[in-house]
Write a structure and sequence with these properties.
The structure holds two protein chains of two kinds. Chain A has twelve helices and two strands; from the N terminus they run αααααββααααααα. Chain A is mostly helical. Chain A has a domain of 215 residues. In chain A, 47% of the residues are buried. By secondary structure, chain B is of the alpha/beta class. Chain B has two domains: 168 residues, P-loop containing nucleotide triphosphate hydrolases (Rossmann fold), CATH 3.40.50; 79 residues, no CATH class. Chain B is built from eleven helices and ten strands. Chain B has a six-stranded mixed beta sheet, sandwiched between helices. The chains are: A mainly alpha, B alpha/beta. Chains A and B meet through α6, α7, α8 and α9 of A and α2, α3, α4 and α5 of B. Chain B: GO terms for molecular function: ATP binding; ATP hydrolysis activity; L-isoleucine transmembrane transporter activity; L-phenylalanine transmembrane transporter activity; L-valine transmembrane transporter activity. Chain B: One of its GO terms (cellular component) is plasma membrane. Chain B: Keywords: ATP-binding, Nucleotide-binding, Transport. Chain B: InterPro entries: AAA+_ATPase, ABC_AA/LPS_Transport, ABC_transporter-like_ATP-bd, BCA_ABC_TP_C, P-loop_NTPase.
Chain lengths: 318, 258
């Protein structure tokens, strides 16, 4: 598959040079949003794409991460990037507590409960829970991140910070996808009873998918808090969850390139069509409907895993 | 000591007693058939052994350890593998990945080891692939390893289910109506395969409708009817047992009563 390697190298080189070639802060800002949503999409991809669990409340974990980082950095002056693992762990623990009792639910039932979880978190934040979250005004004055005494402030600096984090995410997630962990999640998606009957601890793996998705969403929340310096509950509403969900489904559930493409389309394209502000949502809705009819596995569905030594199949696979 | 033993196992669904004080044992190395007319409770017994149901009372011991209350995946880990009556493969995944599902419980690499791809994790993946190859060659499906499971014919899908079960390195394999939907040729091949499995030292419990297959494959038969064991013994003994004949063919009195 040299063709794929070539395409990836060209894309990597292009996006690595993008801020140098086009020093337009607006478009760099758009790309920063795309990277952030790509990270969020990839985190949700474990739950929705690989395991087939409908989670429509992913913004909850994103919020828990963002607020953990914001609270700790404003109150205790801890450098925000140090809080990446802390915020990730907080979101992960929250997922562990919340998902455990609901994980056995299937399909639409799970979707409804996760919508509820998302709303509970948002409303709790709005009500200034424990006096920590600042109510609907949120938290402001979140300190800028610093790397080696360099203060990260400008869009191009965030471009490399968030983009770099996205690359690390892809690196880890690709490997995890190719392992027994990724396969186990796919078996559950295909047929849960058969997976359990083949020796896979389905309850554990479903929970693990939730937790790993939440940990990464929590870390994305940290980056978001650092970028915005202000966070408020409005950034973590139901539509946020729907957007992340749509990125995964539209791009290609279970496919890393698919999810990134989904982020480009759902976050990037609306910026292109800003001039047609009123019509763009209409266009978008229509595009989604058509997509689901004609390409219901997403734009870039996942490729089959390759195994060394397995006899080649003539004519490729479906 | 027998490999698997059921002792006075009872399972009720609401008011219906699906399995009523059934006891039998399977000795290591044997091929045992569990037979009975439709709705006799064969599949319920099966699901009790594999952990899909929990018995209301009684005990099920595998190698002296109770399987009662254990989850299905845990029971696979203990060494009991199964196939499904209606084929349940991971249809959109490749043949080799279906078999790797069986290898899963014999692997240990965790999330972090997989993320960084430690040497141990890579070695384990390689070993699992070797197991998958060995098992697929055993059922003669290695040439199709890269195909998606859904593209296989019905008979081959059944073989793939058996391969997936074998990949978990079981000491007991339970086959739920493996000949269902197979033609005579395929059934003959299945009989051969069952004997091969047995030769590998794996004990086989066969739940089957096809009397011809059962009579030829099994060293011992257990017959149940209405959730109760009515006969047990060597195939030729069981075949001539009047209660078994009655259960399968009905008795004159019954016909009169109808």
């Amino acid at each position: 598959m040299n063709k794929n390697a070539f395409i990836i190298s060209v894309l990597l080189a292009f996006f690595a040079c993008f801020p140098v070639l086009f020093s337009n802060p607006y478009w760099i800002g758009v790309l920063n949003d795309i990277w952030l949503y790509a990270i969020l999409g990839l985190s949700l991809n474990w739950i929705v794409g690989h395991t087939g669990l409908f989670n429509l409340g992913h913004a909850a974990y994103y919020a828990v991460g963002a607020y953990t980082a914001a609270i700790l950095s404003t109150r205790y002056n801890i450098p925000i990037l140090w809080l990446l693992p802390v915020a990730g762990a907080a979101a992960g623990l929250f997922a562990l507590a919340v998902a455990r009792p609901i994980i056995h639910l299937r399909g639409d039932y799970l979707a409804i409960v996760t919508i509820g979880v998302g709303e509970i978190v948002r409303i709790a934040l709005e009500n200034d829970i424990f006096g920590l979250t600042g109510g609907s005004n949120g938290i402001f004055g979140i300190p800028r991140p610093e790397i080696f005494d360099m203060r990260i402030r400008r869009p191009w600096q965030f471009y490399y910070l968030i983009g770099g984090f996205l690359l690390i995410t892809i690196w880890f997630f690709y490997r995890l996808e190719q392992s027994r962990f990724g396969r186990a999640l796919n078996y559950i998606k295909e047929d849960e009873t058969a997976a359990e009957g083949s020796g896979i601890n389905t309850a554990w793996y479903k929970l693990a998918a939730f937790v790993i998705g939440a940990v990464w969403a929590g870390m994305a929340g940290t980056l978001f808090a650092a970028k915005m310096t202000i966070i408020s509950p409005g950034s973590f509403n139901f539509w946020e969850s729907v957007l992340i969900f749509a990125i995964v489904i539209l791009g290609g559930a279970g496919s890393i390139p698919g999810v990134i493409l989904g982020a480009f389309l759902l976050v990037g394209l609306p910026e292109f069509f800003r001039n047609f502000a009123d019509a763009r949502m209409l266009f978008f809705g229509a595009a989604m409907v058509l997509m689901m009819i004609f390409r219901n596995k997403g734009l870039l569905p996942p490729l089959a895993r390759k195994y060394a030594g397995v006899p080649r199949v003539k004519g490729g696979d479906a | 000591m027998s490999l698997l033993s059921l002792e006075k196992v009872v399972k009720t669904f609401g008011g219906l007693t699906a399995v009523n004080r059934v006891s039998f044992s399977v000795d290591a190395g044997d091929v045992v058939g569990l037979i009975g007319p439709n709705g006799a409770g064969k599949t319920t017994v099966f699901n009790l052994i594999t952990g899909n149901y929990t018995p209301d009372s009684g005990e099920i011991l595998f190698e002296g350890r109770s399987v009662k209350g254990k989850k299905p995946h845990k029971i696979v880990d203990m060494g009991i593998a199964r196939t499904f009556q209606s084929i349940r493969l991971f249809q959109n995944m490749s043949v080799v990945e279906n078999v790797l599902a069986g290898c899963h419980c014999r692997m240990k690499s965790g999330i972090f080891a997989s993320m960084i791809r430690t040497p141990g994790q890579r070695r384990e993946e390689k070993k699992a692939l070797e197991t998958a190859k060995e098992v697929l060659e055993f059922v003669d499906l290695w040439e199709s390893a890269g195909l998606s499971a859904s593209s296989l014919s019905y008979g081959k899908q059944r073989l793939l289910e058996i391969a997936r079960a074998l990949a978990s390195r079981p000491r007991l394999i339970i086959l739920d109506e493996p000949a269902g939907g197979m033609n005579d040729q395929e059934t003959a091949e299945l009989l051969h395969l069952i004997r091969e499995i047995s030769r590998k030292g794996i004990t086989v419990l066969l739940i089957e409708h096809d009397m011809g297959l059962v009579m030829r494959a099994c060293e011992k038969l257990v017959v149940i009817e209405y959730g109760t064991k009515i006969a047990e013994g060597r195939p030729e003994e069981v075949k001539n047992n009047p209660r078994v004949i009655e259960a399968y063919l009905g008795s004159d009195e019954e016909e009169d009563a109808c």
